[in-house]
Write a structure and sequence with these properties.
Elements lengths: L7 E14 L8 H8 L8 E14 L10 H16 L2 E2 H4 L10 H15 L5 E7 L5 E4 L8
Parallel strand pairs: 1-3
Antiparallel strand pairs: 1-2, 2-4, 4-5
Helix pairs in contact: 2-4
Amino acid sequence: MSPRSARLARLSRSVTFSACHRLHSKALSDEENLKVFGKCNNPNGHGHNYKVVVTVRGEIDPVSGMVMNLTELKEHMQEAIMEPLDHKNLDKDVPYFAEVVSTTENVAVFIWENLQRLLPSGILYKVKVYETDQNVVVYKGEETMVE
């Protein structure tokens, strides 16, 4: 393969933000919420130091040698993740979660949707959200499961 042939690569960057939330569904009774979410349904909420790894995918530009300029990715992540989520009460400060349960799965979808609006079309590959070292969600933009 010659050096000028297209080469695909994935580029990842991570950020960490702190936020609190309460796992609670308006579709469930208080008793059902407690049964489903346990201590995470605490009326006063609880907090996490989330780590988010964003991966973009594309051809390595033959001139710059990059899939994407890291400075641009950093700026987009600041706008899509840090500004709306860092040091926030997800349920009270982020309008998206007024009607959507603030699970880590839904946090990953929120981040994906925000990044999709900012990044070049088709470059976003994966959003990985660590709620804790043991609880991790990966979202790749799939909307439904095909059966």
